[in-house]
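Chain A, query sequence.
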Amino acid sequence: MLFIVREYFKNYPARKKVAELLVNNGIAIRNSKPYIGDIEISVNSIARAAGVNRKIVYHTIEYIENTYELRSVFERLSPTLSLHNVAPVMGWEVIDIKFKKGRFGCALGELTRVLSEKTCEIRQIIGERELLEENRVLIIVEKPLRMETISEIKNIESVESIMIHTAEKDKEKIVCNYCKVKYCPRKIAPR
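Chain A, predicted structure.
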């Protein structure tokens, strides 16, 4: 998706920043106005977030509206709920897996096979396959994975790296005023 944006906006760096912000946040352009879902948002807020002036945002919207290929994509964008920041508060675990380039599909199939065999209770899977950037998957599971499951995931040929964000057992530590703990760095050891 960002590849398309970069191609169409390669001669307009400021507009490209705006277009990438729209895509990354699921902000649609319909009838020359920006929307998150069915909620119209201001051009000023987009300009501030992108670090450009309002005129650039208006030009970007106009360019999108006047380019059929872009309009057909941008009018269908929508935001996606991601539970990965909420997971530690809910007591869930987040597995962040990066794949080697060009191996996303094969690795994803193998990964889901491993998780289904281990009967992991999956809350959400969010995958991103970029042409130029990294390929990664965030998997939110209800209970911590066993060491054998983690080892099996690490042994998948296409897995480049795996990071596990574990839920903090004591919820007060997450919301205390003294520190900004987001994840408890659980030591992974065989049971």
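Residues 29 and 127 are 24 Å apart (CA to CA). The radius of gyration is 20 Å.
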